[in-house]
From TrEMBL:
Protein family according to the UniProt entry: Belongs to the short-chain dehydrogenases/reductases (SDR) family.
Keywords: Oxidoreductase
Keyword Ribonucleoprotein recorded: no
Pfam families assigned: adh_short
Biological classification of the source: Bacteria, Bacillati, Actinomycetota, Actinomycetes, Kineosporiales
Identification of the protein by name: SDR family oxidoreductase
Amino acid sequence: MPHMTTALITGANRGLGRHFAAELLARGATVYAGAREPASIDLPGARPIALDVTDPDAVAAAAALAGDVDLLVNNAGISTGAQLLGDLEGVRAEMDVNFWGTLSMVRAFAPVLAANGGGKVVNVASALSWFAAPGAGAYAVSKAANWNMSNALRLELAGQGTQVTSVHLGLADTDMATAIQGPKTDPAVVARLTLDAVEAGDLEVVVDDWSAMVKASLAEDPRTFYDRFLTL
Ligand SMILES: NC(=O)c1ccc[n+]([C@@H]2O[C@H](COP(=O)([O-])OP(=O)(O)OC[C@H]3O[C@@H](n4cnc5c(N)ncnc54)[C@H](OP(=O)(O)O)[C@@H]3O)[C@@H](O)[C@H]2O)c1
């Protein structure tokens, strides 16, 4: 990352977001660490900022406070296990954070990024942008929306020179994945790979083999992929 980078990371108090913040600090960036509870930010050198991405007033206040940002990392996310045919409030909650919260941040920070030379947006999506798994219906839909939002925003922000990068991973070793079995990527590695890719100008980061396999499967008959779940 160029040493002049000034970044804001949402959900920077724990998990992947904390690793983004730590890696950016190590690379010499100025870091605004967004958190619903700013007192939970424990990284020396980070500037805590109160930020619930579902609160429009908090988002606007963050954009007013952090007017020097040229890298926005939309990392905050929830995974509740809500099913599309279950409690609708759960489905809406996933969309509120993973889709609407991310869009709200980009809308608020687009003028800030423009004023700072165009800048960069990183949206943390998922391998689940490209498939649905049992028990993760609402999350998968929200992350599919997040992915194509990045594509659309890339077009809408091209005129002001803002680079938009979408990040896709299977499992990372954070609180979100505690209850899920399977190989998990070190979140420090996710942060490092992502920031290297963003610096290189990449528009998409496919972090692991699982994400690459899922993406490739989109070119196949869906039955080839979904038979593994349908026959359970
Ligand atoms: N871990 C995985 O296996 C995995 C895989 C694919 C994609 N991802 C994505 O990676 C990103 C980071 O997830 P993680 O694994 O680090 O999860 P995590 O450990 O559960 O952390 C989630 C972070 O998001 C914050 N957050 C939740 N709702 C928020 C809101 N309304 N406003 C602001 N911040 C909010 C949390 O803050 P609080 O502490 O206040 O709750 C926390 O800092 C998410 O977008 C997730 O969907 C994770």
